[in-house]
Every structure is written in C-alpha cells, then in structure tokens.
Amino acid sequence: MQLPSLHYISQGETPQEHLKNIKSACTAGAALVQLRLKNLSPKKVLKFASEAKEITDHYQTRLIINDHYRIAKEIKADGVHLGKTDTCPSIARKYLESWQIIGGTANTISDCNTLIAKGVDYIGVGPYHFTKTKEILSPILGLEGYVALLKNLKTSIPIIAVGGITLNDVPEILKTGVYGVAVATAITNDFNTITLFKKILENSDIEEQVWKPKQNL
Questions:
Q1: d(CA 214, CA 98)
Q2: Residue 48 — left, alpha, or beta (φ > 0 → left; ψ -120 to 50 → alpha)?
Q3: Long-range contacts of 169-176 (CB under 8 A, 24+ apart)
Q4: I need a surface site. Which of 42, 136, 142, 181 has the fewest CB within 10 A?
Q5: Whole-structure pTM value
Q6: What are the residue ranges in the chain where pLDDT is below 70?
Q7: C-beta atoms surrounding 144 within 10 Å
Q8: Structure confidence at residue 129 (pLDDT)
Q9: Residue 217: its pLDDT value, please?
Q10: CA angle 19-49-27, nearest 5°?
C-alpha cells in the first residue's frame, strides 16, 4: 500500500462525536484516519474502534488506532500509532500482523533514530505549533526545528509533521523535506479542507512511498 501523505487525527468531546467526525472525514475524501480516543477503558476503545472500522471500510479509508496495538490487531486495522510513552514498537511488531503499519511519535533526532532502530514504518514529528489536543506537549519545533531535524536525519522512512497545522502552514513545511502532515483541529473545523490539503500535498515534490510488510524483529 502507499502511505497517504495526509492523516486525519480524530477529535470529539465523546466517542460518538469521534465516529461522526471520522465519517465526515471519510465522506470528504480522507485516505487515512487515526482513531485517537483517550481516557477510555480498553473495552470501550475496542467497541468504538470496531465501529470506526466499519465506517472506514465502507469508504475504503485506512484506519490507524492510537496507542492500542492489541485492539488494532483484533479489529484488523491498518496499523497502530504509538506515542512516546506507549508500548515499544518492537513489541508491537512481534504481536501485529506483518501487513500492519506502525507509526511512532518523535520530537528530536534522537527520538527518530530510536524509532527507526525499532522498525517503525513512519514517524510523526511534532509539535509544529502549540496544540490543545495533547495533555503533555513536547517542545514546539516550528519551521526552524523541522529544517534542522530533516537536514541531519538520514532516513527514507516517511516523516509526518503534526501539531496545530493549518492549510497555510503546509507549503513551507513541505520545503523542509517532510513526507506529509497529520491534522486534527483544522480538518475537524471544516472537513472541506481535506480536498485543499490533498491538493497542496499532491502538487508537492514528495514521492509517494509504497509500504512493504516487515518481517517480525
């Protein structure tokens, strides 16, 4: 599969609102959605992840589960995104199916190199701006932070910029060499922006990368 360059990270005051927003994102043309439910029991996350899978399957949209790699396997999601304090990607890799993607969160070059050594398929680097979507926020990188990181990071693994990103930010971010962007608030506020995000990303010089299954480490 080709890794989409635009990732929609779900938002909502309730799990039902997350599902409603995921459906809106799929309807508007999202190619990849990350279900990001926080402070719920694994049992409830499983319930809503299963419902999210039904929605994304209907629209042939990729579904990534935040944090819960066991649930990602159980519902046959396309993969899992692991935060800095979540399960080690090496452990998740041994548990998941070979075709399931693993993404990891990073803030520094050291974080990125650690994730690369642990066999992730893409790295979400951020935050670009201040964002209220995370309770514990790593230092803000800004444009200069991405320039410095990408200049010194030698990897073919796709780098996805994340953290308060808007349409106006994308052209300059792409110049740093990132592969794509993950967006939550800007898309949730207006799902019509998905078309505009995709248009900017598709007109960039980035080459789509074909994801190939990894052997378990």
A1: 6
A2: alpha
A3: 169/128, 169/129, 170/197, 170/200, 170/201, 171/200, 172/143, 173/128, 173/143, 173/146, 174/200, 174/201, 174/204, 174/205, 174/206, 176/143, 176/146, 176/147, 176/150
A4: 136
A5: 0.91
A6: 1, 131-137, 205-217
A7: 9
A8: 87
A9: 47
A10: 40
How many angstroms separate the CA atoms of 94 and 41, rounded? 23
Q: HEC states along the chain?
A: CECCCEEEECCCCCHHHHHHHHHHHHHCCCCEEEECCCCCCHHHHHHHHHHHHHHHHHCCCEEEEECCHHHHHHCCCCEEEECCCCCCHHHHHHHCCCCCEEEEEECCHHHHHHHHHCCCCEEEECCCCCCCCCCCCCCCCHHHHHHHHHHHCCCCCCEEEECCCCHHHHHHHHHCCCCEEEECHHHHHCCCHHHHHHHHHHCCCCCCCECCCCCCC
Q: Which two tokens mark 212?
A: 């190939």
Structure tokens at 199: 């248009």
Token code pair at residue 94: 């041994």
3-state SS record for 10-28:
CCCCCHHHHHHHHHHHHHC
Closest to 161 measured CA to CA, from 181, 138, 143, 144: 181
Q: What is the pLDDT of residue 212?
A: 62
Question: How many residues are present in the chain?
Answer: 217
Q: What is the pLDDT of residue 136?
A: 63
Average pLDDT, the chain: 92
Residue with token string 């299954």: 213
